[in-house]
Amino acid sequence: MQIAILLYDRFTTLDAVGPYETLGRLPGAETVFVGERTGPYRNDLGSLALTADAALSDVTSPDILVIPGGPGQLALMEDGPLHEWIRAVDATTTWTTSVCTGSLILGAAGLLKGRRATSHWLALDQLPALGAEPTGERVVFDGKYVTAAGVSSGIDMGLALAGRIAGDVVAQSIQLGIEYDPQPPYDAGAPDKAPAEITAMMRERSRFVLAGEE
C-alpha cells in the first residue's frame, strides 16, 4: 500500500506529519513524500523542511493520496502540471484525502464537485466556488474522498481512515502507540468555542481576507 503525501513550499507541517504518523503505521504501508521537484520544501514558518524523495512523474498509482494545506496553497490554485498529476493519480487511488486547505487544491483540480467536504474553518466559505458542499465536521467521508478540517484534524482523519482500511483494532493500536489522547489546556479549538475576540482576531488575520485586499 503506497501512501503519497504531497509537499510544496509553505505547507503546514502537521497537515503532512499527522497523516504520516497515523496512516504511515498501517501494516504494509510505504509512505513517499512527493513534490513537483525532489528535494527539501520549507514549511509555512520557514524553519523546518521535509524532503520529497520522489517527483510527480515517479509516483503514478498511489493507493492513498494526501494533500496537506498551508499558505502555499494559494499559489497552487491555477490548473497546471500539479493538477494534472492529482487528477491522473486520483483515477486509480483507493482514497484521495486532504487536510486543512488541501481540500481547496482538490477542489481546484475539479475533484470535489457535488461532494461534501471540509477545510480549515477560515477557508470553508471558499469551497462552494469549487463546487463542493462545505460542512463544519472535523472529518468528512464522501465516497473515496476524505477531507479533514484544520491542521490537527489530520491526525483524526488518519485514524478514521486507518479504521476503515485495517479495522478498529489496528487503528486503536496506532492511536495508543502515538499516545494520541488530547487534553488541551484551553477549550478554544473551534470558532464557536474560542472567545469572540480571539475568533475575530483570527478572521482579520486570515490570508483569505488579506488576499482579497491585494
Key attributes of the depicted protein:
INH-QAR, single chain, alpha/beta, two-stranded antiparallel sheet, Class_I_gatase-like, globular, Rossmann fold, 7-stranded mixed sheet, DJ-1/PfpI family protein
Structure description:
InterPro entries: Class_I_gatase-like, DJ-1/PfpI, INH-QAR. There is one protein chain. The chain has two domains: 2-181, Class I glutamine amidotransferase (GATase) domain (Rossmann fold, 3-Layer(aba) Sandwich), CATH 3.40.50.880; 183-214, no CATH class. It has seven helices and eleven strands. It has helices at 13-23, 81-90, 102-108, 153-166, 168-177, 196-205, 207-213; strands at residues 2-6, 30-35, 39-42, 49-52, 54-55, 64-67, 95-99, 116-117, 133-134, 139-142, 145-148. The mean pLDDT is 96.
